[in-house]
Specification:
Shape: globular
GO molecular function: metal ion binding
Protein name: TIGR03086 family metal-binding protein
Oligomer: single chain
Strand content: under 5%
Number of helices: 6
Radius of gyration: 16 Å
Order of helices and strands: HHHEEHHH
InterPro entries: CHP03086 (IPR017520), DinB/YfiT-like (IPR034660), Maleyloyr_isom (IPR017517), MDMPI_metal-binding (IPR024344)
Domain Mycothiol-dependent maleylpyruvate isomerase metal-binding: 13-132
Structural class: mainly alpha
Number of strands: 2
Helix content: 40-55%
Length: 192
């Protein structure tokens, strides 16, 4: 991502991909573990949609850290609706391109809105892969979005140090010929 790129189309595409996948999440899957350590599917869905609302809130002019990193209780049968509402809020909040150049505060510092969206793209794409591993491991996820997320992650999430203030485990080795989604997950410390 350069200083003039517009990450909104990619970010909205990533949210659309997430929304479609969340729509396939059956209630009986919600207690299953995900590749994201410490999160079952229900908790990871709540966190990922919470991130989407933080993104919307920053686009609306708020300080993202003022919102929790997870949504409150969602009915087991309303995850698709919750994802749709998050998508609509993000789209409306970032519709005005001036938000791209406004300074916003996110967990990794005060950055221009476009840099916040690029950073959050990494989180949304990665968690979509995590969710897919439970909901539909054969789901065809967008490789272009994963490549953009991986490029951003490699540029801004160093291989070392990890842990503490850097909320990722050590880089995991990805198997030869691994998909870009698996390489992204490995870079962010998922056990592959």
């Amino acid at each position: 991502m350069d200083a003039t790129s517009d990450p909104r189309p990619q970010f909205l595409a990533a949210l659309g991909q997430l929304e479609k996948l969340v729509g396939a999440a059956e209630p009986e899957l919600l207690g299953r573990p995900t590749p994201c350590d410490g999160f079952d599917l229900r908790a990871l869905l709540g966190h990922t949609l919470g991130v989407a609302h933080r993104v919307a809130y920053t686009g609306e002019g708020g300080r993202g850290l003022d919102l929790p990193s997870a949504v409150g209780r969602i009915a087991d049968t309303d995850w698709a609706g919750a994802a749709g509402r998050a998508y609509a809020r993000v789209a409306a909040a970032w519709a005005d391109g001036t938000a791209l150049d406004r300074a916003v505060e996110v967990p990794w510092g005060v950055v221009p809105g476009r840099a916040a969206l690029a950073g959050y793209l990494v989180e949304i794409v990665t968690h979509t892969w995590d969710i897919a591993q439970v909901v539909d491991p054969a789901a065809e996820l967008d490789a272009g979005l994963a490549q953009a997320a991986l490029d951003t992650a490699r540029a801004f999430v160093p291989a070392e140090p990890r842990g503490g203030a850097v909320p990722f485990g050590p880089v995991s080795p990805a198997p030869d010929g691994a998909s870009v989604h698996v390489r992204l997950a490995a870079w962010l410390g998922r056990r592959i």
